[in-house]
Amino acid sequence: MELKEILAISGQPGLYKYVAQSTRGVIVESLLDGRRMNAAANAKVSALTEISMFTEGDDIPLAEVFTKIYAHTGGKEAISPKESPERLKAAFAEVLPEYDRDRVHVSDIKKCFAWYNILVGAGFTSFELPAENE
After folding, report:
1. pLDDT along the chain (134 residues), means of 10
2. Which of 46, 54, 56, 93 sits CB 3.0–4.6 Å from 103 for a disulfide?
3. Going by C-beta distance under 8 Å and a sequence separation of 6 or more, which residues neighbour residue 104?
4. d(Cα 108, Cα 72) in Å, to the nearest integer?
5. What is the pTM of this model?
6. Using CA atoms, how far apart are residues 114 and 50, in angstroms rounded to an integer?
7. 93 to each of 24, 47, 71, 79, 87, how far by Cα in Å?
8. What is the rounded distance in angstroms from the CA atom of residue 22 to the CA atom of residue 40?
9. CA–CA dist 60, 7 (Å, integer)
10. Which helix (H) or strand (E) holds 70?
């Protein structure tokens, strides 16, 4: 399983693995409980490789943020996304000190840590972006 196969669906908790295309959307499997469902064609579905975080310089791909969290935690789960906003901001600043404090909200930080914990729980150890074809 590669990071490019992992999807976030707007309005749905957790992360999903792409399974197949269907006539009404895509069939996905939850990384939390393994249940399959159909994500409707009109649902906002994003691959994790397409998401990035705002920094003071250029935006940084989410895969790189996950790699930094992985290195910081030594491959263990990160801070719980249910911690206080102050603790979440402090933990995120340790991992990514250059993040844009005006454009990255606490909800974004919560989602980042929650997604990272789901991926580590699913056995991910590498968060590499797919190589681009030239």
Report:
1. 89 93 93 92 92 94 94 93 95 95 95 95 82 48
2. 54
3. 53, 54, 92
4. 19
5. 0.90
6. 17
7. 41, 25, 14, 12, 10
8. 9
9. 18
10. helix 62-73
